[in-house]
Amino acid sequence: MESRTFDKSDLHYIGVSLKEQSEMMYYTGDLSDCGNEIGIMVSSRYDDMTEEEIDELIVGIRHGISLTNGTH
Predict the structure, then answer these.
(1) Which of 12, 37, 43, 54 has the lowest tally of Cβ within 10 angstroms?
(2) 12-69: per-residue pLDDT in tens?
(3) Structural domain contains residue 40
(4) Domain count of the chain?
């Protein structure tokens, strides 16, 4: 299966949507809640994500974190 394309308009949509959602949040949560909010916004941009696409996203998140925490 070919990977779905991603460009700056997708990142902009997700970023703006997360900002708007954060302004309406009424709870304080933990990192799993943060991941949940990100997942909702990503899946609202990409309908019917496959397990493979979800795995790709998680790998990308892990890579981004490793680039900033010194484990890369």
Answers:
(1) 12
(2) 999 999 999 999 999 899 999 999 999 999 999 998 999 999 999 999 999 999 999 9
(3) yes
(4) 1
pTM of the predicted model as reported, rounded to 2 decimal places = 0.81
Say if residue 3's pLDDT is above 80: no
The sign of the CA dihedral 6, 67, 37, 19 is negative
Backbone angles phi, psi at 36, to 5 degrees: -60, -45
Phi, psi of 12 (to 5 degrees): -65, -45
Calpha distance 18→13 (Å, rounded): 9
Q: Is residue 3 part of a domain?
A: no
Q: What is the pLDDT of residue 1?
A: 59
- Inter-residue contact 44 to 17 (CB < 8 Å): yes
Domain presence at residue 2: no
Distances, alpha carbon 18 to alpha carbons 13, 14, 30, 48, 58, in Å: 9, 6, 16, 20, 17
